[in-house]
Amino acid sequence: MQAVSENEATGAPQFTVDWFSRSIPAWKHLFPRVMPRPARILEIGAFEGRSTCFMLEHILPADLDGEIHCVDTWEGGVEHGGIAMNAVFDRFRANVGATVKRFPRHKVILHRNLSSLALRALHAKGHGGTFDFVYVDGSHQAADVLEDLVLSFPLLRNGGLMICDDYIWQRQRPGEEDILDTPKLAIDAFTNIFRRRIRFIDWPSTYQAAFLKTV
């Protein structure tokens, strides 16, 4: 577990891909209604930090102490072939460092490990039920997504918000889909089994799934 320092900033944030901006309108519609002032966020899958920086700027209230715990191996998954992940990690630290510099009341804590291990470690360290918001955007393999959901749900407080990214993401071409190589099967399985402990949210997104923890 390690915090990102503003001393790591080397200028304005630099991103090479944009997989997050399409979700911003839906997030800006959702958070003021259901989670206007979160203080503790858990992010599973961070890549270059685009979503992390957005949360530092727009989700954590600037007038409150806030923190984001980022869980990622920064080794990439099956969909990241050919990407230099060490450079991705360096960009993450520089991007987040530049943003933290502008928001001194916020901090970002890294858990560079497999999510299955990092989430269990958070449990062991007493973080159960302490997060206001959990963003699940790690491995896209169904088995891994299901494990991330099961392990992170107890870390979310009652009334807390969870968003699962890439609900309809698919790597294969049409007609060659592999249901175990997409988050949808895992998200459907989890939300069906936990349906008495969650409440789905009506919001303008079909690419992500969002729900509140009720019990």
Short description:
With 215 residues, the chain is an alpha/beta fold.
Provide the descriptors you would attach to this structure in a database record:
single chain; 215 residues; alpha/beta; Rossmann fold; eight-stranded mixed beta sheet; 33% helix
CATH class, anyone? Alpha Beta
Strand content is: 15-25%
Rg from Cα: 16 Å
Principal-axis shape:
globular
Helical fraction equals 25-40%
Q: Which structural class best describes the helix and strand composition?
A: alpha/beta
Mean pLDDT: 93
Separation, N- and C-terminal Cα atoms: 29 Å
Write the H/E string, N to C: EHEHEHEHEHEHEE
Strand order of the largest sheet: 1-4-3-2-5-6-8-7
Unreliable runs, pLDDT <50, ≥5 residues? none
Report the major sheet. Answer: 8 strands, mixed
CATH architecture type: 3-Layer(aba) Sandwich
| CATH domain fold name | Rossmann fold
Task: Note down, in words, how this protein is organized.
This protein has 215 residues and is α/β, with parallel strands linked by helices. It has one domain (2-213): Vaccinia Virus protein VP39 (Rossmann fold). The protein contains 6 helices and 8 strands; from the N terminus they run E-H-E-H-E-H-E-H-E-H-E-H-E-E. The protein has helices at 24-34, 50-59, 85-102, 115-124, 142-152, 184-193, and strands at residues 2-3, 40-44, 66-72, 106-112, 131-136, 156-164, 198-200, 209-213. Helix 2 links the parallel strand 2 and strand 3. Helix 4 packs parallel to helix 5 (142-152) and helix 5 (142-152) runs parallel beside helix 6 (184-193). The longest helix is centred in the middle third of the chain and has 18 residues, at 85-102.
